[in-house]
Amino acid sequence: MENNIEEIRHSLSHIMAQAILNLYPKTKLGMGPAIENGFYYDFLLTKTLAPEDLQKIEAKMKEIILQNQKFTKKNISKLVAKKLFSAKGGSASGGKDQPFKLELIKDLPGKTVSIYTTEPDKKLQATSYKLQPFVDLCKGPHIKNTSEIKLDTFKLTKIAGAYWKGSEKNKMLTRIYGLAFSTKDELQKYITMQEEAEKRDHRILGQKLDLFCFSDLVGGGLPLYTPKGVAIKEELQKEVERICRGYGFQKVSCPSLTKIDLFEISGHAKKFNDELFRVSSPNGHSFALKPVQCPHHTQIYASKPRSYKDLPIKYMESDKQYRAEKTGEVGGLTRVYAITVEDGHTFCTREQVKDEIKAMVNIIKEFYSSIGLWGNHWISLSTRGKDFSKYIGEKKDWDLCEKILKEVSDEMNLGAIKCPGEAALYGPKLDFMFKDAIGKEVQIPTVQIDFATPKKFNLVYTDKDGKEKNPVMVHRAILGSYERFLALIIEHFAGAFPVWLSPVQVSIIPISEKHLEYANSIKQKLLENNIRLEIRDEAETLGKKIRTVEMQKVPYLLILGDKEIQAEAVSVRQRSKGDLGQMPLDKFIQQIIEEIKNKK
């Protein structure tokens, strides 16, 4: 398709609004932008829509498209625009009694606004009704004519709720989403991918596999981890800490509560003002729950004098952080109030910075190679935007940091792409973007240089000439939030985790009660080798037990009966290969230990 796909998507949102007004004339229009892969529009409707209504709306959109409607832009004064969208406005569809449009007109800068009008080709007759011209407040751009849209390249997909302007203080509107692509094949490919994504949804699989749950009494956004979920989290933590220890990191631990003074000095109190949980007690104590761990680590560094001989000093910690996310944005493990964050900070000299960053890149490479994601990624060199007031520190330090990160990218052949405006509060960074098994992109690991924070907290070390200097602080997150990371790997592996990560690595199934004693002896030997297991001794058929284990995606299943007892062996079924036959227990243990060791 010759047109810019973004213009097509934006135009489809207008066409959907026109269709809605024809079907439900008293509807109030919100906003309707183009988004990644499609478009949406927010409406205040006089009825509640059901999923089957999408087909009716989509059919009406196709009728409008077949009218060869022309998009015409016009700049008008705000005064004229207010009259157009008022209760006594013009006769054009969309341009009468639209309070949300009036609010937008008031908020927009300047004395003029732009509107787009669409109306059918007068040479053509509507197939089922006569259309009025449709007018909407919009800066564009749009396509020239609806004839440029192919009817089989878009599809309405879902209905959701959305607060006007994203604020819970405003009215809840009905948001209708649609997909739009350049070709029918692209649309179908994306729909197929989305269907696969739904099968892999971490919220569904997390419940089916008994990894985590939520409680209304505890509160939304506060996940509770089951023994199986904790098993995965602990394996991830052990692995990332094992790798980091090899590069000199040491574990520290900090409280969740802190005086707000700490975050006022760091700048986080201002940045996270709307996201801070503030805690007070009846006897006058006043604290904040930490939204980040960086300032706490500065205070461990500041607890005693430091020499250049001590540097680099490297701290790592996996602990809870808390952010008061907007209620409407909380969901699953990807947006929560209580975040378990894997975090690390290095305090070093300027001369050591580049080597420390390279070490952190190597840590990221080793960790993500262990789960099969390394290689399917790209890296952002996230730099500051034009408005320096949004950041802390000195421009000369920022320039040096960006130069160092560019050199690291070049020397390590990372191919980092510069992304202005994506820097952290205190410095530029390398952000690693990974694609999962179905092509969904997620950013988790990051390495960030920070000259500003050590200066804010007056952190110093004594150099070889006896002079005090500020260290450089290098921030790094390898797996970031355990919640987001767990959501990523549940969906990436579709719940079929590699053996080393599986919460249950072996299921033992005695064929009958008389084989239970032998099953317990096998259990003991597996436990002695730190293998996570379960015994399925329910009073059910062998077939049902096997199906239950397969649904739980356990890597190995050991079936025990008379033959296995006589041979002092186990019959092995592997998740990916099926029946492997009978083998000595020692051989099986050696095989699974090797898989765990090699992160398979």
From TrEMBL:
UniProt xrefs under SMART domains: tRNA_SAD (SM00863)
Domain of life assignment: Bacteria
Residues the entry annotates as binding Zn(2+): C294, H345, H475
Pfam families: HGTP_anticodon, tRNA-synt_2b, tRNA_SAD
Keywords: Aminoacyl-tRNA synthetase, ATP-binding, Cytoplasm, Ligase, Metal-binding, Nucleotide-binding, Protein biosynthesis, RNA-binding, tRNA-binding, Zinc
Cellular localization per UniProt: Cytoplasm
Subunit structure: Homodimer.
Protein name listed in UniProt: Threonine--tRNA ligase
Organism for this UniProt entry: Candidatus Staskawiczbacteria bacterium RIFOXYD1_FULL_32_13
Gene transcribed to yield this protein: thrS
